[in-house]
Amino acid sequence: MSFDPKLLRRIRREFPMAEHDPSGRKRAFLDNGAGTLVTRKSAEAEAKARLDWSANVGNYFPESQGAGQTILEGRRAVADFLRAEGPETIISGESCTSLLFELSYALSRGLTGKESIVVTGFEHYANINPWAELGGMGMIEQLKFARFDVNSGYLDMEDYKQLVDKNTKVVSVAAASNVLGTRCHLTEMCKIAHDAGAYFLVDAVHHAAHGPTDVKKIGCDALVFSGYKLFSRHGSFMYLTPELVEKLHPYKVDSSPKHGPEKWEMGTRDQAMFAAIRGAMDYIAWLSNPSSRTPPKPGQQRSSKLKQAMERIEAYEKDLTRIVLDGYGRLMGLRYIPSLTLFGPNEIDKKVGRDPTFAFKLAGYGDHELSKILWDKYGLAVGAEDYYSRVPAQYNAKTMVRATFVHYNTKDEAQALLRALNELSEKKK
Ligand SMILES: Cc1ncc(COP(=O)(O)O)c(C=O)c1O
Questions:
Q1: From the CA of 389, how far away is ligand 1's center (Å)?
Q2: What's the CATH superfamily of 5-38+313-427?
Q3: Which of the listed CATH numbers 3.30.70.100, 3.40.640.10, 2.120.10.30, 3.90.180.10 matches domain 46-281?
Q4: Which of 62, 71, 123, 228 is deepest in the core (most CB within 10 A)?
Q5: Distances in Å between the alpha carbon of 401 and those of 78, 346, 369, 371, 381?
Q6: Residues 6 or more apart from 379 whose CB is under 8 A from it?
Q7: Nearest 10 degrees: Cα torsion 119, 120, 125, 127
Q8: Is the shortest distance between the CB of 357 and ligand 1 below 6 Å?
Q9: Does ligand 1 lie within 6 Å of residue 341's CB atom?
Q10: From ligand 1's centre to the CA of 102, what distance in Å?
Q11: Could you give the percent of the chain with pLDDT greater than 70?
């Protein structure tokens, strides 16, 4: 079920910055791949926790009790969102980059230097350098990159199957490329990794805002995502199977807990970060049934509401993707504009879909020049960079222009992007 215009207006009211920038200029925010806008529910929950529950955990007075409760409720909400076993599987960190470095250290214990690690050719560096570092220290033999087809943007599954063998210790892949929008066939890839005896880890930072994430269905050993790409603030979360939470040995100081997620968390937690992600989850759960006044109960009920909401988001984003790729009325879509090169899938994969992330170049314009024109003249906020990715280099480019839509974007905004690019392409003829 997609969103009707009335619901979309309500959704946009939940994001105070959806209509205009801080100076009051009306614009379309399409730089969501770099960080989404923040929901009112998340910001308000964070502010309340910041003021009310500012004490450290573990004591008897209300500020301390409230802080502990806020952290637990945040973990519960994330566990429900990921359809994980429970709050004991949810670890927080400063960023996904730091969580992946932490995990790479923990997994490196026991390596002999003969093992390999497999990632894809379209990873963010946050999912490359933690593993490359192990190679640099001689702890693994090789870091392998599964190829993707530069024409279609799809991962070459045959290459992936060949790379994963009995020496593979870890496979770590993006749920979706933050440049191309390509999604991975996670469940299938996980089975291949597990059959070879490797751990399977997922970087869901880019994808989390675009569809349901189900760690059990994937079967993964770990999965990371960041609050600032999911309608909340900075700070990130990692799912680890209950077994791995206990079995692995992360960096820790002596007095910190020896069990549970706290064992993995370095230093003192910021309870407001947990309140903020809980607020974002409350918002997402609301989307499953906006006319209901009763929020779902934590646990299974909330988990299925969150899943339903993410399915709705995915269905709506599919409509936006069709407009952007195929066009609307007389406006040509990105796949048809003659002087535009679209990188990544020009269709929606039938099995796993596609994230509404579009990287492109327009002949006759530098990427920064184009993004500035799109902003100055058309009020369209897009990115122009390398996105911490090896993807541009694989097309012999340093940067690309990128527009990423999320569910608060409108069909009018998708058309506005096309109108601008159709016009600019026409001008350069
Ligand atoms: C796919 C992907 N992975 C990892 C990261 C890094 O996340 P963080 O900023 O939380 O370290 C990003 C950020 O752009 C990303 O898009």
A1: 10
A2: Aspartate Aminotransferase, domain 1 (3.90.1150.10)
A3: 3.40.640.10
A4: 71
A5: 32, 16, 10, 7, 11
A6: 25, 26, 27, 28, 416
A7: -40
A8: no
A9: no
A10: 15
A11: 100
Q: Which atom of ligand 1 is nearest to the CA of 174?
A: 1
All CATH 3.90.1150.10 domain ranges in the chain, comma separated: 5-38+313-427
Determine if residue 263 is left, alpha or beta; phi over 0 gives left, psi from -120 to 50 gives alpha, anything else beta. Answer: alpha
Angstrom distance (rounded) from CA 372 to CA 387: 17
Distance from the alpha carbon of residue 142 to the mean position of ligand 1, in angstroms: 23
| Ligand 1 centroid, distance to 191 Cα (angstroms) | 25
228 lines ligand 1 (CB under 6 A): no
**Site of tokens 């870091």:** 143
Residues of the chain with pLDDT below 70 are 1, 429
pLDDT, tens digit, for every residue of 120-169?
999 999 999 999 999 999 999 999 999 999 999 999 999 999 999 999 99
Question: CA-CA distance, 115 to 102, in Å (whole number)?
Answer: 19
The residue whose CA has the least distance to atom 9 of ligand 1 is: 95
* Percent of the chain with pLDDT strictly greater than 90: 97
Distance 292 CA to ligand 1 centre (A): 34
Query: Cβ(179) to ligand 1 under 6 A?
Result: no
Q: In terms of residues, how long is the chain?
A: 429
Ligand 1 atom closest to 234 (CA): 10
Of 427, 423, 428, 429, give the one whose Cα is nearest residue 331: 423
**Distance of CA 234 from the midpoint of ligand 1 (Å):** 11
- Structural contact between residues 260 and 88, judged by C-beta atoms closer than 8 angstroms: yes
* Comma-separated ranges of CATH 3.40.640.10 domains in the chain: 46-281
Helix (H, G, I), strand (E, B) or coil at 273: helix
